[in-house]
Design goal:
Helix content is 50%, strand content 7%. The chain has 728 residues and is of the alpha/beta class. It has a domain at 150-282. The strands form four sheets. The chain has a six-stranded parallel β-sheet with strand order 1-2-3-4-5-6. A two-stranded antiparallel sheet has the order 7-8. A two-stranded parallel sheet has the order 9-12.
Length: 728
């Protein structure tokens, strides 16, 4: 979408800025990687009239970005990228160096920061006292050099929370000036802009939480806007060339506290800011010639009749699938007829769910994302994985609970214990792998926010360490909080943290099965829905375990319990649906509607994705947040999962034979060994993370890699590779 952005900038006669966030370790940014990157930027920005500011790896002095606090590697990478642009056409690109405000430097310290005694550590220890702390310079270690830095910038926000409880405060007089001249033990503006004669870029915004008391939004943002305008117009900051207000919203405390950083989100605030801008004497543009023929067109987007024709085609397809078997008797043998207790339809759907999980967790841009990233409705592999886990528990242990409840408790407890031990082994194993100097484990030991979780849309790109503090395990004595944190699964790869949720749910499953055996199905459903409602409203964490961040226990239990109820009553439910075909038809219609609606998502997974512009972007995002949010399983998403499973199960019942021949041979074995596949895929993530070619977002190479990986998993399952060691 960069080309779209540049088209919009050109239509306004504006310059443009690209923020470049490396997806490979800094020490892997060599000449070949740079040439590929520069060539792509040159191709995308061809014919762009304005200057293209390239802000490479900003906030590099922070601990929350993957490239943070590695001064030597950062300098080298920045210089390599700058040299790459100079070798081609440097006239239209501007290299911007932009650290983060050093007020609380060195923050939490990055896991890859140089260790004491190393050459890199000497760069961080700017005062030479043998320690890296708040007495050291926050910016100087990361400066790449006057010959490659063309603009200097600083990320400086009004935020008095220090990452703690939300508080709305009016900016103090001269606050921004002090940030620019007296933070991080340096006078940033004087040292890097004025003395070096570099244009200065300020990125800023003001903290405001609508749900928190204190000062009013207009008062906070108006005061900060005035200070930002003052920096742009005051003689003391004459090198100021650009002010970027961070127009975004986010959340804190796992989504409980909302934060509105925008200056335009409130009409009154925006109008006041515009009036102040008009009175500031600043010229607002355009700064380049506007091409009268230049217009913004969104690619890979169908709108109007073309979009609705896709909906009509989907409707016709659903009607055909529904009517053909009813009218063509020759298709009757296609139906599902397996009389065994094991339901292969469930196995196939479980196989599909685990494929979705593997593809999404590996995270390589490929054609597979066209199917796995909410292309069949507002559903991901995680929801299906949890639902089918409960379904299998109900099918396997349900028939036994009446005759031998104690045996069921024993079996489920043993299973939960095995899964818990597996989670500990994976947690510790990944940590030990991360200690290998030449082995990259960032894909497992960090989480890069995609903007879909508790941190909100614009948390995207922020990196969190999943093993922060665990290195103290090698201290003596070991800090008392570390071992309990390990046992409670507070560390570990995010791709595996759902295992903690499954352990807890498996432990309580005998009680639910006992209630179902006593005919308390309505009570079970009422309780699980009530707990779900409490979880979504209060967002209370029951455990300190990591899985609560992505799969809150009070919320996600509802999928497991509904699946368990369905597994326990599977034959009765199937018989009831068979005699109430209208319910299946309604679920199929609803699932089809959700599919069509999901195709309108403004987010495109890659250049081959297609979007139907049936709803304006802002309306769509608001609708998505309200009804289809993932972390807290918004009601629309929960309903979507239910109707999709009913529709898919009915489809397999009618069209089983051709589906089994087409994909059953592949998906059913994976579905019968989902735990094995789930464990092995963690190892494969680590392997992929050490293959640089797979991190360059080449769709076709990555698609081929997925074919190999999924094929390898299938072969491993079919040959029962290490089945005696790895739980299945």
């Amino acid at each position: 979408n960069i080309r779209q952005f540049l088209d919009q900038a050109a239509a306004l006669g504006s310059h443009a800025m690209l923020t470049v966030k490396p997806t490979v370790p800094l020490d892997q940014i060599d000449a070949g990687v740079v040439r590929t990157f520069v060539a792509e930027i040159e191709k995308i920005s061809a014919d762009f009239r304005g200057q293209l500011l390239v802000r490479f790896a900003p906030d590099m002095n922070g601990s929350w970005v993957d490239w943070g606090q590695q001064p030597a590697a950062y300098r080298s990478a920045f210089r390599a990228v700058a040299a790459g642009f100079k070798e081609t056409n440097d006239a239209g690109t501007v290299m911007v160096w932009q650290p983060y405000l050093g007020r609380d430097y060195p923050f939490d310290r990055h896991r890859n920061a140089p260790a004491p005694g190393s050459d890199g550590f000497a760069l961080l220890d700017t005062n030479g006292d043998g320690a890296w702390d708040g007495a050291d310079n926050a910016y100087a270690p990361y400066y790449p050099g006057d010959d490659v830095v063309e603009w200097v910038g600083l990320s400086a926000y009004h935020d008095d929370t220090a990452g703690q409880a939300a508080v709305n405060t009016v900016p103090a007089a001269g606050e921004l000036t002090r940030m620019l001249t007296a933070s991080g033990n340096e006078d940033f503006y004087a040292t890097y802009a004025e003395q070096r004669d570099k244009p200065f870029l300020l990125q800023t915004a003001a903290f405001y939480s609508p749900s928190t008391g204190g000062a009013a939004e207009a008062e906070i943002k108006g005061a900060w806007w005035d200070q930002a305008l003052g920096a742009a117009t005051a003689g003391g900051f004459g090198k100021t060339a650009a002010v970027v207000w961070d127009e975004r919203s986010s959340t804190r405390d796992t989504g409980v506290v909302s934060i509105d950083w925008t200056i335009t989100g409130n009409a009154g605030v925006a109008e006041a800011a515009h009036a102040r801008l008009d009175g500031s004497g600043l010229v607002t543009g355009p700064v380049t010639q506007i091409d009268a023929g230049q217009a913004y067109t969104q690619p890979n987007t169908l709108s109007g009749p073309a979009a609705w024709s896709m909906g009509a085609a989907l409707l016709i397809l659903l009607l055909a699938l529904w009517q053909v078997p009813r009218r063509v008797s020759a298709l009757a043998p296609w139906g599902y007829t397996d009389p065994s207790a094991r339901d292969s339809r469930v196995d196939l759907l479980r196989g599909l769910a685990i494929v979705f999980v593997v593809v999404d967790h590996l995270g390589m841009t490929s054609l597979f994302q066209l199917f796995t990233q909410e292309a069949i409705g507002f559903v991901s592999g995680a929801e299906l994985f949890v639902l089918f886990s409960g379904l299998v528990v109900g099918m396997v242990y349900g028939p036994r609970v009446k005759d031998d409840f104690g045996k069921v408790v024993d079996l489920t407890s043993r299973r939960a214990g095995k899964l818990y031990l597996t989670a500990l082994v994976v947690l510790i194993g990944v940590f030990l792998m991360s200690l290998l100097p030449s082995f990259q484990t960032g894909a497992l030991t960090t989480f890069v926010d995609q903007g879909t979780g508790g941190a909100g849309h614009n948390g995207a790109g922020r990196t969190y360490s999943l093993y922060a503090g665990m290195e103290s395990l090698f201290q003596f004595p070991v800090p008392p909080q570390v071992l309990p944190a390990i046992l409670l699964l507070q560390f570990g790869p995010w791709q595996f943290n759902i295992m903690g949720l499954y352990v807890v749910l498996l432990l309580v499953s005998p009680l639910i099965l006992a209630a179902l055996n006593r005919g308390r199905t309505i009570w079970v459903l009422a309780v699980t829905l009530a707990v779900y409602a409490v979880g979504t409203i209060t967002r209370v964490r029951i455990l300190p375990s990591q899985f609560e961040d992505s799969f809150p226990l009070l919320v996600w239990q509802v999928l497991f319990v509904i699946g368990l109820v369905a597994g326990f009553h599977r034959r009765r439910i199937v018989a009831w649906l068979s005699s109430h075909v209208w319910v299946v038809a309604a679920c199929t219609a609803a699932a089809g509607a959700f599919v069509f609606l999901s195709w309108g998502n403004p987010y495109l997974s890659n250049g081959y994705d297609l979007r139907l512009a049936i709803i304006p972007d802002t309306v769509y995002r608001s609708m998505y947040d309200a009804f289809f949010g993932r972390t807290y399983l918004a009601p629309g998403r929960l309903f979507n999962v239910m109707v999709l499973v009913v529709a898919a199960y009915a489809f397999l019942t009618v069209y089983w034979k051709p589906v089994e021949r087409a994909v059953g041979w592949f998906l059913i074995p994976l579905g019968r060994a989902t735990l094995y596949v789930f464990i092995v895929h963690v190892v494969l993530i680590a392997v992929v993370g050490n293959i640089p070619a797979l991190g360059l977002t080449d769709v076709w190479i990555n698609t081929a890699a997925y074919v190999v990986i999924l094929g390898l998993l299938w072969v491993m399952v079919r040959t029962r590779f290490l089945f005696r060691i790895i739980p299945t």
